[in-house]
Amino acid sequence: MYESSSQPVRIAELGQDSSVAGLAPQLVQFAAVARLEHVTQAAQLLGMPQPTLSRAVARLEAELGVDLLVRQGRTVRLTRAGRLLLGSVERALAELERGVEQARAETDPVAGRVAFGFLHTMGTDAVPALLRGFRADHPQVRFQLVQDYVAAMLERLRAGELDLCLVSPLPDAPDLTARPLDEQRLYLTVPADHRLAGRRRIRLAEVADEPFVALEKGYGLRAITDAFCAEAGFTPRIAFEGEEAETLRGLVAAGLGVSLLPPGLVPRPGVVELEVTAPRTRRAIGLAWVAGRPLTAPTAAFRDFVLSRRGRLLDHD
């Protein structure tokens, strides 16, 4: 039983022992007879022989152990039990119809929905530009947008909660397809009064003894930072961890450490960005989806549009 904000919703049992599952087709037939109060007309509506429909309703009554209809010549009327059952059947059919409409709307090539996950650092510029470009030709497609760290997004991708993910680093997993789109330079961001702030370029090993501020473990940028530091011959001493790149930039401005970050969209007072010459601190950004899972028409259209932006996803520095 699932709890909602108002009344608990009872979920019907399924399987061979379920009393409801086997009755479902007969309930539709019963509803047609009850609405029209005429077996022959109901049979015509359902496109089945009248004797077959009569036997189906009689079988339903026998299985339930109650009389649902009273026959009066060629017409029928509902018993009290029949009226009670019809109310529930009508509500169930209406809810089922809504579900069918929603399922069809989800995959509608013109106005369907795309569940799209992306990195926090892509949400201020790259993703809005992608959506604006795509909706120029697909104005009615709806989007569910999710910002999260890479591991969580890939988990939701596999679970079917997301259709596509814009990620870095690109996953190397047999159940996922990933296509590179662009590379983004990462700068060593230092406080404006830092001993190295007057430099334009730096080797990462030069800050091996400095405190670092970084994203929490699980974020792609954190894994990339750790990997670059390892390539430079040291393990970063993490003084502060956060969840947003701009928060890290603020911590750097406060003099609490240095950080490897993508370029800021606007100049941030109190920080200086230094180009790292060794190692080559760039991160690959790409699009991922579940291999072999069919994509809806709007999702496939958006995937193809994003892939067409390869090499133009970001402003190159």
Write the layout of secondary structure elements.
Elements: H1 24-36, H2 39-46, H3 50-64, E1 69-72, E2 75-78, H4 80-107, E3 113-118, H5 126-135, E4 142-147, H6 150-158, E5 164-167, E6 176-185, E7 187-191, E8 201-203, E9 211-215, H7 220-231, E10 237-242, H8 245-253, E11 259-261, E12 271-278, E13 282-290, H9 297-307
Helix pairs in contact: 1-2, 1-3, 1-4, 2-3
Spatial extent as radius of gyration? 30 Å
For the residues shown, what is the average pLDDT?
87
- What overall form do the CA principal axes indicate? elongated
Q: How much beta, percentage-wise? A: 15-25%
Please, could you describe this protein's structure?
This protein has 317 residues and is of the alpha/beta class. Helix content is 36%, strand content 23%. It has helices at 24-36, 39-46, 50-64, 80-107, 126-135, 150-158, 220-231, 245-253, 297-307, and strands at residues 69-72, 75-78, 113-118, 142-147, 164-167, 176-185, 187-191, 201-203, 211-215, 237-242, 259-261, 271-278, 282-290. It has a five-stranded mixed beta sheet, sandwiched between helices. α1 (24-36) packs across α2 (39-46). The longest helix is centred in the N-terminal third of the chain and has 28 residues, at 80-107. It is elongated. The two termini are 55 Å apart.
